[in-house]
Description:
- The complex is a heterodimer.
- Chain A is mainly α.
- Chain A has helices at residues 3-30, 37-62, 70-86, 91-114, 120-139, 161-182, 184-194, 196-201, 206-229, 243-253, 265-284, 289-325.
- By secondary structure, chain B is of the alpha/beta class.
- Chain B folds into 3 domains: 42-255, no CATH class; 378-480 and 617-660, Response regulator (Rossmann fold), CATH 3.40.50.2300; 482-613, Response regulator (Rossmann fold, 3-Layer(aba) Sandwich).
- The chains are: A mainly alpha, B alpha/beta.
Amino acid sequence: MTRTETAASHVREWSVASAIAALMLVLTVAAPGFFSRENLSDLLLANLPVLLVAVGMTLVIITGEIDISVGSIFAVCGVASGLLSKSGMPIWLAGAAVCLLGTAFGSLNGALVAYVGIPSIVVTLATMTALRDGLRWATEGAWVQDLPRSFQWLGLTQGRYPLVATVVTGLITAALAFGLRHLAAGRAVYATGSNPAAARLAGLDTSATRTCVFAILGTLTGLAAVLNAVRFNQIPTNAGIGLEMKVIASVVVGGASVTGGTGSVLGTVLGLVLLAATGPALTFLGVSAYWERAIQGAIILVAIAADGIRRPSFRRLVGAAAGARA
Amino acid sequence: MTARQRWFANGEWVLLLVCIAEVVFFSAVAPNFLTLGNFFEITRFSLELGLLAVALTPVIVAGGIDLSVGSMMGLAAVSFGTAHQTWQLSVPLAAVFAVLVGCAGGALNALLIARLKLPALIVTLGTYSLFRGIAEGITRGAVNFTGFPSTFLFLGQGYLGGVIPAQLPLFVLIVAAYVALLHRSVIGRALYAIGFTPQGARYAALPVARRVALVYFLSGLTASVSALIYVAHLGQARSDAGAGYELDAITAVVLGGTSVFGGRGTIAGTLLGLFALVSLQTGMHLAGWPAELTGVLTGVLLIATIAADRHIRRAAHARTEERGDVEVKNSQVAVLCGAIFAAALIVAGTNVWLIRAVSNGVRGADGPQASAAPHRITIAVMPKAKGDPYFVSCRAGAEEAARELGVDLLWDGPTGLDAAKQNELVENWITRKVDAIAVAVENRAGISTVLRKARARGIPVVTWDADAEPDARDFFVNQATAEGIANALTDEASRLLQGRGEFAIITGALSAANQNEWIAFIKKRLEHSHPGLKLVTIRPSDDDRDKAFAETQTLLKVYPSVKLMMAISAPAVPGAAEAVRQAGRTDVNVIGLSLPNINKPYVHDGVVQTVVLWNTRDLGYLSVYASALVAQHRLAPGARAIDAGRLGSIEVRDTQIILGAPLLFNKSNIDRFDF
């Protein structure tokens, strides 16, 4: 990665951070109730699963691929966790099994992309429809009910579960952020995305890297499905519709380029914070629900257009500096 | 690029084979699949999607993507409706206005992508929300523009010379324009170059930004034209027009061999892809197979076709590398391809003819036996959405009635709320010649034309759950009027709040017609009978339990004085209840319209006080029973009552069959119901 690119990706992180700051400022003045402890912890708990998927998606997007099947995998895994737990399996074991199921779906996507050579958007478009409609077909829309008592909150109490979920998600996010920056495997992800041919010539197994990032995303989606499912005592079969849009939007608003090679976990976290806070913030500000979607779209556009407008001048600046040094 | 690559580059042969296989297969399996009438029907409902797919082809060829086309359809439809009905503009002026809106939307995408150099995916993801959001904002989700003049509706519903759908010439014209642009012009070549390598195109002195801007502008324009056809086709303009079309259109484009990396793809391929997709869907409907299977098969088809294409290309690539370049003249290749194409057509033609002859033969052989045995009645029943637990429980009753009566039940419907899909299915059923059609109507104005057509062909039509225009159906199985539901809910709220206090509504999707009608009656009832109650806000749940949960969590904090949540979508009630329970707000009541089974835990815990609903199982039972009676000519207009199996005598008022008053489920009786 060149100096310019590093700098450019930080531009995005700054514009997203300032958008968040602006939103917070408006909220502090107009609706301080937003910052109550209950609201923040509710928001956090609702978005932990989304964060897990978004972090996985960051890896996939950095390699220059995309996965729009996460919503369907999320639904299938949620239903699977309920069925396993109903069959008497302890929830910890059921959770692990569901993560494996997610890994399997992710690896399937990855293998089709890396070894058969089909573009990822095509593969995941296909698995998205196939899994979603397959689930509808198998369950006929019936929810999973009569779950054992130990299912909700992973058998913990409502008070202790958020702590466990936050710690687990935080550790995974931090580990991936660290690995992506400092481990050889993480640098291989960037290399594969920024120039696959060069990465291959440098001796990296780009096909294996691609398959792995899809598998990791699948695993995280499985885990997210479990963390989401255990907040309730029954599981609907239409969960996760539109999840892929939410997640991809967070990742790209956070500065990752869909052509691969750039992006960071920090950016994704910022992007998700902006998008996840907007909806409830508008409710707190008393905006009518009918205009909410339009305003959310406008916020995404403004957040990214801001650095689009700023970038040319920034480039000139960097160019001039480079010229001066030469 | 050698001529060889130009002809074989896009895997269209693979796709052509797939299409032929589909046609052959479905003509053998599905009655009436291979008829001219059906061909034109397929064309009719795939035209709007087709326009989007055609418009997306140059975008994707140039290495971009446009996710906003479906939302643009919604915005253009609403703009057209507003201009025509609110501003009283004439139809042509309103159409021009809608197209201008489409151009403006396309120009916005073009500006952000070509001028500011922002990634297309994220820009159009933003405008995807923006356009749909503006459409919802203008109409407040609820306004449904109908009552367009019949000259305009002819564009979407009429036939030229009695057979050709009226919108076909317009479609052909636009496709021809796109073919000229992409394949016969310098601009088209520039688009391929840009898709292949934008950097290289710039060095070749191509105006990259202007060319890229052009395709996004055109895609907005075409989406708005498509919206006009959609409005004329369904007779209504609503903010949810074209929802989800962008993914179907992209599927058709990539199935047609266009590379998502840019630089490769043809309009012909896209049309073939569209044909493969649509004939798969129609074939499944005509064969009476579950619609969910279509999604699974589409996925498999997509991967298989692209994988086969990749495989062939790789093999061909390896061969050319071994042998070196084979020099073939353009004209020779053209002749060769022409010959192969003609041969394929002949083979296809003979196959089709053979299969028809065989199936006719089979039918002929069956004929005498069939007439000896009594004709087995097939009743086609359509829910609003198949996966919805509400309709799943109706299905149990429908199957029960079909067993008792000894009739065949064909239960199929859209997988999500989708008025256009409902029309398409009814058309399929008319082609299939079922004995009776029973529809839970998603959109009153939209479906009535096609239902009238069914009646004109001698197929009795019954509506259930929600009604169509009275002259478009024989009978309506009325479970409870919108007013009855609204009054029951409002009175219950008033009882729980003892006549005073604030409450909030969690609805389904903001544009859901049923819910909006209930809300209107709830407001009326509040005004007349319960002035002490105050409705503070209405929030959407999009029929998603988790979203209803999150919305309720926020509502509880923003409006601490709200003492009652009224959820009027089946999955929203348990969502709201869970939020209230987790917040520990024992002072907040939850009531709503939902199914007993998914609410049992909450009713027993005392979080949910009352669930209002009719007996859905009985509703499905009665709908099939009434349809069978009409089909056997045992129920004619003017009847005062019918004898409906285990339900006993059921009252008929005019042409409405009345199921009874809504039920109130609470702690005392909820365990007696299982649906």
